[in-house]
Write a structure and sequence with these properties.
It is built from eleven helices and eleven strands. Helix 3 crosses helix 10 (323-331), helix 4 packs across helix 5 and helix 5 runs parallel beside helix 6. Strands 3-2-1-5-4-6-7-8-9-10-11 form an eleven-stranded mixed sheet. Helix 3 links the parallel strand 4 (122-127) and strand 5 (153-158). 30% of the residues lie in helices and 21% in strands. The chain has 404 residues and is α/β, with parallel strands linked by helices. The longest helix has 24 residues, at 168-191.
C-alpha cells in the first residue's frame, strides 16, 4: 500500500519535459521579429559539464563559477510562461533562446558587468527550487524579470540539483553544501559600490538555502548586511519551527520578509509526507491562529495565493506564472512599497496578512481554505496527531540560551 502511494505521489509530480541543452548561444537574424532581452549574472556551485549546450550539470563543485548570460524572449507569448523550443536550436521568433554566454574569471569582471547593467543600483538575487537544471533556472529568471517589469539587475544563484524526482534528499543536501557560497556571493554583491539595495527572491527548496545563508551571515556578522532590504519566499519548503529559529538567529535588524503561501500546493504536501508529515511554511493559512499573531510579531507579510488559478498542476509556481503576482513582486515588493493602499488591486481574490491585519488585495475577498492540501496524502497510513501549533511555536520567535 505504501509503495503504491509513493508511486501516486511521484506520478503527480511528473510533468512534460522539454529539449535539454539550450544553453548554446544562437544568432539573432536581422530579419527576425524584434525580441526582448534579459541580461543576467549567474553564480553557481554546480560542476561544469564540459558541454556548451548545458554548461553545468547537477553535481557539486568546490569552486563557484560566474557566468554572463543573455536570454532572448519572443514577442508573442502568454505572460507567466516559459516558451521552451520544440526542437533545437531554438527559434528566437517563437522560443526563449540564449544569445550570449561568457565565463567570468574574477570578481572584478563581475563588478564590471554589473556596472554596465546597473539599474538604479537595485539588484535581484533569484534562488531556484527543487528539481531544476541550470537552464531551467536561467529561463525562469528571464521570464520573471521580463513579466514583472522590475527595475533591477538580475543575479541568479543556481545550486547543484540533479533535476530528478527521486533526488529530493540529494537536492536538499546540495542547498546546505551551497550556503557559504551564497553568503559570500551576497557579501560580494553588497560590497559593490554600484549596489544600493538587494532583494532576494527564493522559491521552494531554494528558500531553505536563502534562510540558511542569511542565518549564517547573521551569526558571523551579528546581523544581515544592511543592503539586503527585502527577502521574498515563494512556496517556502521549510519546517515552520525551523524557519522561526532561522529568522531569530540571523540577528537584527532584519530585512523585510514577504512569504507567498497556498494551501493547495501539492508539491509541499508531498514534501510534508517525505519529511515525516511536518507542516511546511508555504502551506499555512496565514489568517488562522497562531500564524496570524506570530507573523504580526515578526513583522512578516504573508500573501495567500490559494485562490489564484494556475496552469501548474502542482500549484507550486503561482508566484511566477500569475501575471498579477509577478508584477506585484517587480513593482512593489522589491521596492518595499506597502500592500495596504488603494493602488494594489489584483485580478483574483487574494488576501495579505500585513501587520496582523487581513487585507483583501484582490477584487474578491479570498475565503480561507479549510485545510492544507491533503488529497494526495489520503491513501497513506493514518495521520498521527500533530502537536499543538501554539505550543510548539510559543518560544520559537525568541532567542534561547542553553543555560540561564
Amino acid at each position: 500500500m505504501l509503495r503504491r502511494s509513493l508511486v501516486v505521489l511521484l506520478s503527480v509530480l511528473s510533468g512534460c519535459g522539454h529539449p535539454s541543452g539550450v544553453m548554446a548561444p544562437v544568432t539573432l537574424s536581422a530579419s527576425a521579429p524584434r525580441t526582448a532581452k534579459v541580461d543576467m549574472l549567474v553564480a553557481t556551485t554546480r560542476q561544469p559539464s564540459g558541454d556548451p549546450a548545458t554548461l553545468f550539470n547537477g553535481e557539486r563543485s568546490p569552486k563557484p563559477y560566474l557566468t554572463e548570460v543573455a536570454v532572448s524572449i519572443p514577442p508573442k507569448r502568454q505572460p507567466g510562461t516559459v516558451q521552451w523550443p520544440h526542437r533545437l536550436p531554438p527559434n528566437p521568433a517563437t522560443d526563449f533562446a540564449v544569445i550570449r554566454v561568457k565565463q567570468l574569471e574574477t570578481v572584478a569582471e563581475g563588478r564590471a558587468w554589473f556596472r554596465q547593467h546597473v539599474v538604479g543600483g537595485h539588484a535581484l538575487v533569484f534562488i531556484h527550487g527543487f528539481n531544476n537544471k541550470y537552464e531551467d533556472s536561467v529561463f525562469r529568471l528571464a521570464q520573471i524579470v521580463h513579466d514583472s517589469g522590475m527595475q533591477a539587475t538580475p543575479v541568479l544563484f543556481t545550486w547543484p540539483s540533479r533535476a530528478q524526482l527521486i533526488a529530493y534528499q540529494y537536492d536538499k543536501e546540495s542547498t546546505n553544501y551551497s550556503r557559504t557560497a551564497l553568503e559570500q556571493a551576497l557579501h560580494t554583491l553588497a560590497a559593490d559600490p554600484d549596489v544600493k539595495d538587494i532583494t532576494i527572491l527564493a522559491h521552494s527548496m531554494g528558500t531553505w538555502l536563502a534562510m540558511e545563508s542569511l542565518r549564517q551571515m547573521g551569526i558571523r556578522d551579528g546581523h544581515v548586511n544592511p543592503k539586503i532590504h527585502n527577502v521574498i519566499l515563494a512556496s517556502p519548503d521549510i519546517d515552520i519551527q525551523v524557519f522561526a529559529k532561522q529568522y531569530v538567529e540571523m540577528g537584527a535588524p532584519r530585512p523585510k520578509f514577504t512569504i507567498f503561501v497556498s494551501q493547495d500546493d501539492k508539491a509541499l504536501a508531498v514534501s510534508s509526507f517525505i519529511t515525516g508529515r511536518v507542516s511546511r511554511l508555504g502551506a499555512i493559512n496565514p489568517t488562522e491562529e497562531p500564524y496570524r499573531t506570530k507573523l504580526e510579531q515578526a513583522g512578516i507579510t504573508a500573501i495567500d495565493l490559494t485562490k489564484v488559478k494556475s496552469d501548474d498542476a502542482l500549484n507550486h509556481g503561482k508566484f511566477a506564472e500569475s501575471p498579477e503576482i509577478v508584477q506585484l513582486i517587480g513593482r512593489r515588493l522589491m521596492t518595499g512599497q506597502p500592500l495596504t493602499d488603494s493602488n494594489v488591486t489584483l485580478g483574483q481574490g487574494i488576501t495579505a496578512v500585513v501587520g496582523g491585519t487581513v487585507t483583501n488585495i484582490g477584487t474578491v475577498a479570498a475565503a480561507a481554505a479549510a485545510a492544507p492540501a491533503t488529497m494526495i496524502e489520503q491513501p497513506l497510513q493514518p495521520r498521527k496527531k500533530q502537536p499543538n501549533a501554539e505550543g510548539t511555536l510559543q518560544g520559537d520567535l525568541q532567542p534561547q540560551s542553553l543555560v540561564k
